[in-house]
């Protein structure tokens, strides 16, 4: 009877949804999109669809596992924030050990798949992403306003996983993709931190908007990084990776995003800053799609 009841609990819709929630599907999806873009842009010839599938699957497993481990590490912090109190661990739907086993298992499986199919370099980049995210960015959020800057390094590595899986090496165009992802994270994540700064403060997280009450430093970083993002996004055409159509498409997208950031900076209200959140979330997939369409074979 006890065994049957436990088995029913394991496969219950609530627990299944909780495990899916542990993987942070929105973040994992973003990782997959950037990895796919990196693979496509780095492929020297026709796509190897089997390799692409293995790379995407391996990266997906590592990303989902890393997010589950993030839930495990930040379970106490999450319980003190309104926006995260309903997550599986603070809500008591899953135990900490269940999240730990789930995260370790997915991460290890993803790393093994990447190593066996895509090669050692993509695997090492995946491991570096996990290690930096959990070992540097996550604990640093409680200690320093520079967490977003350092956290942008692991956040910019997924396209390099795809690039090295397809090409076997890193070159200047791969690092251009890295730069685009690096600078993109500032307007996106600082705008989120600004909107939820009271929640972050309640949890004891020293994100820049928490200590920067006027927003001067926060919006300076947003504007400088967005300007750098616009310039970085034009480089694929300069190096010959993409054509002139992409150049003008990237320029238009970048200037629209920059204008939204300038508009939000003038009042710094949550309503306006949410526009940065949403605009940056739309900007990145559009830019990557334009880049892939504009790739010069």
Key structural traits:
disordered N terminus, mainly alpha, Four Helix Bundle (Hemerythrin (Met), subunit A), 297 residues, 2 domains, globular, Tetracycline Repressor, domain 2
Structure, explained:
By secondary structure, the chain is an all-alpha fold. The protein has 2 domains: 159 residues, Orthogonal Bundle (Tetracycline Repressor, domain 2); 127 residues, Four Helix Bundle (Hemerythrin (Met), subunit A), CATH 1.20.120. It is built from 15 helices and no strands. Helix 7 packs antiparallel against helix 8, helix 10 packs antiparallel against helix 15 and helix 13 packs antiparallel against helix 14. The longest helix is centred in the first third of the chain and has 25 residues. The N terminus is likely disordered.
